[in-house]
Amino acid sequence: MPEARRALLRVAAALATRDAARVRAALESAHGVAEGNHVDEVLLQSHLFVGFPDALNALAVWREVSGSQAPAALGEDPRVWEARGEQVCETVYGGNYQKLRENVRGLHPEFDGWMVNGGYGRVLGRPGLDLRTRELCIAALLAVWNAPRQLHSHLRGSLNAGASVAEVDEAVEIACAEMSAGRADEVRALWAGIRDRAR
Fold first, then answer.
1. All structural domains of the chain with their residue ranges
2. pLDDT of 76-95, one tens digit each?
3. Which has the closest alpha carbon to 41: 58, 26, 24?
4. Cα atoms found within 13 Å of the Cα of residue 90, Cβ hemisphere only
5. Integer angstrom CA distances of residue 174 from 83, 85, 114
6. What's the predicted TM-score (pTM) here?
7. Any idea which fold 3-70+129-198 has?
């Protein structure tokens, strides 16, 4: 895996710790290694998982560390988000896409639209970072965040988005460096079950 992608994975995993010093250290390590707009994208997408406050704080640190100005807004027409969201979500979930939509609608019908249009269309389908890298970063973040159900989906989603088993192995190990030994064992066991079925 290229060092630039490793740096992005370390940023994603650090975000999930909610530890300001670890986030700053990961961003400092990413500076000059990863492309600045790629770091921006990892930070932007993190709000779907860690929330706006942590994403905003991380963006502020990144502006300080990198010395970069905020990029221009894409100015996308929101009407493109639904179709793009459906396509991206289906890529990530593969054969489980329709079941996912039904399950989420069963929890709350509004959430289904927010997930597809907002999560996958507005955020994860954005240009600027390939879906494989996005999914690997999400998996690293969710592993540290301790969200096993969602982690399971995004480990599989990483493969569906084109990541190799070796790349997911590396993402898991980067995440495991940010957690206790016991939690790391749980994450590795979860991934091992998915990896064995993928071969």
1. 3-70+129-198, 82-122
2. 999 999 999 999 999 999 99
3. 58
4. 7
5. 33, 28, 30
6. 0.96
7. AhpD-like (1.20.1290)
